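ugh ok fine here u go
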Amino acid sequence: MCDFPSFEGEDIYKWLYKCNQYFEIEETQESKKLKLASYYLDNMTLYWHQNFMRSNGGRLVTYDEYVEAICGRFWWP
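structure:
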């Protein structure tokens, strides 16, 4: 088993690449990806996650929707 990467707000695409590698190696179910990824958020990324989930009013968010939203917040060209 490999270690899951943590994320604190820098280099979102590197983090997502490592997440996807982990998901592939561990054969992670689609329904578990968001929970697993959010567990390894820290500092401002954790606060963003909490606000994002609250703003969806309990609606089930897919991992793909989540990736789009987190990239929108933490990607700097």
